[in-house]
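Re: that backbone. Tokens:
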């Protein structure tokens, strides 16, 4: 039975990014369906407050953010690699680009869809604090333009006939662009017609869909909490000697996303370098866990 547990919901675009990553590596994994809106008590028992989707659990190690999840999957299962062109830096740098691409698509999904449940709209209004929810409809033409401008970049990149973005095999770069289109096609009806002229992108999306999601099985959140409680987290790597933060291992810190969903996670600092930050915390239901984040895009401060 796989030790990979993905906490997600099926409509989650960032969840789709990780499901495709699991497909690229052909991994077996267990799925815990989490609520689409707050509260998410079973998830936050594991994360200490981080509420974004998805989160990957491996025993008592809890990985937040798709970039950190990708890094861990690559470390634990190097082949087939997420970096078929040989180097990884620019591919990780695509995550903030994809966040911008996502923001326009998400704005359209929320602004042009009057079928959405009221609690979801209210939750996202508070969560996406950088979006002007009252002007989403008025801004739709602008957001369509932004999505299509990004799709144009992909179409141009595929112009030499390559099968995937960085090589003849799929990798993290592909997953990082694909999930936004998956969301746009699925949740913004008008988008499908607008995307029709982008034939290379459509063919690439077809190849991405064919990858699948690996081997998935469902479990209950209570099983995941039992697994966390029974497991022991990996030892921390300490704080890199030259780290500019001045923080030291063992110190109480908070880790907070720097964009939206800014809920601080408090714990004892166990790892800090220029790729990652991890804190140890104890929870009544999850036991002692270590929660891992990327360094990029997260604020680490003394508590
Ligand atoms: N930087 C994060 C972004 C994740 C994110 O924003 N996910 C959204 C959409 S799937 C979310 O959490 N929405 C609110 C929620 O699920 O509660 C990542 O790469 O994992």
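Recovered sequence:
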């Amino acid at each position: 039975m796989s030790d990979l547990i993905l906490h997600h919901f099926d409509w989650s675009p960032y969840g789709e990014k990780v499901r495709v990553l699991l497909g690229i590596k052909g991994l077996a994994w267990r799925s815990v369906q989490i609520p689409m809106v707050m509260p998410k008590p079973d998830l936050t028992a594991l994360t200490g407050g981080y509420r974004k989707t998805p989160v990957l659990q491996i025993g008592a190690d809890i990985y937040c953010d798709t970039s950190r999840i990708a890094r861990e999957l690559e470390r634990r299962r190097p082949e087939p690699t997420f970096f078929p062109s040989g180097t990884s830096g620019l591919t990780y740098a695509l995550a903030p680009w994809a966040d911008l691409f996502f923001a326009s698509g998400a704005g359209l999904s929320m602004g042009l869809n009057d079928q959405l449940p009221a609690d979801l709209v209210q939750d996202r209004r508070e969560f996406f604090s950088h979006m002007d929810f009252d002007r989403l409809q008025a801004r739709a033409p602008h957001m369509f333009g932004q999505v299509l401008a990004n799709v144009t970049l992909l179409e141009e990149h595929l112009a030499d006939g390559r099968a995937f973005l960085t090589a003849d095999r799929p990798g993290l770069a592909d997953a990082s662009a694909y999930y936004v289109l998956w969301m746009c096609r699925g949740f913004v009806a008008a988008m499908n017609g607008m995307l029709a002229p982008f034939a290379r992108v459509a063919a690439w999306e077809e190849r991405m869909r064919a990858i699948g999601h690996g081997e998935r099985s469902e479990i209950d959140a209570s099983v995941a909490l039992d697994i966390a409680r029974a497991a022991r987290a990996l030892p921390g790597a300490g704080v890199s000697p030259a780290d500019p933060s001045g923080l030291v291992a063992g110190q109480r810190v908070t880790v907070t996303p720097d964009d939206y969903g800014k809920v601080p996670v408090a714990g004892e600092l166990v790892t800090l370098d220029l790729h990652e930050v991890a804190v140890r915390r104890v929870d009544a239901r999850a036991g002692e866990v270590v929660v891992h984040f990327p360094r990029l895009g997260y604020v680490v401060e003394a508590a």
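The mean pLDDT is 97. The longest helix spans residues 89-111.
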